[in-house]
Amino acid sequence: MKPPLPNSYWVRPGRFAAGEYPGDLDPCQAAAKLKMLLCAGINHFIDLTGAGELRPYRDIAEREAPAHGVHVGYERFPIDDAGVPRSREWMARILDAIDAALDDGKTVYVHCWGALAGQVPWSAAGWSATARAAHRPWSRSPGGGRAWRRSAASPDRRRPATSRSMS
18-49: per-residue pLDDT in tens? Predict the structure, then answer.
């Protein structure tokens, strides 16, 4: 299945996508991106950027949605750009929001600013780990905490890391 935007991917095809910021400095470009997402069936956005960090797109999404026969939902859980969630509880809140939207039959798009090296991989990997562990909180999923602790940026890591990378 083709991803909804060039810098995006399906975590769960047809139900949960992750990727780049769907807005743009140019409102026409933002509307074009949002139309692509809406055409792909996206109707719930989970924004991992901070308030005021980027130009808002929520109003554009809400304006475009009726033409696609949908109502869009929006939630924000800020994570510092290129950072990790500030706590396991914060990560659990993000994963719970993804699960709640999916359970409500929504098609979810999670995004940060750039998508492929920032917050989105954490959320997608965390959700995938929870899905494999029967939707248990990420901190309790088998092996889920090991990647968290390996990151030097993690505030509650339990062993020293030698670099900021995940490798």
Answer: 998 999 999 999 999 999 999 999 999 999 98
| Share in percent of the chain as helix, strand, coil (round to 5) | 40, 15, 50
- C-alpha of 150 from chain center: 21
Q: Which two tokens stand for residue 50?
A: 């901070």
d(CA 77, CA 82): 14
Looking at the DSSP bridge assignments, the partners of residue 79 are none
In this structure, are residues 72 and 43 in contact, taking their beta carbons and an 8 Å threshold? yes
Give domain status of residue 126, yes or no: yes
DSSP, collapsed to helix, strand or coil, labels residue 82 as coil
Written as one letter, the residue type at 56 is: P
How many domains are there within the chain? 1
Quote the domain boundaries for residue 29. Answer: 8-136
Does the residue 12 lie in any domain?
yes
Q: Is the pTM of this model over 0.85?
A: no
Beta bridge pairs of residue 76: 47
- The DSSP H or E segment spanning 93 is helix 88-103
Give the CATH number for residue 55: 3.90.190.10
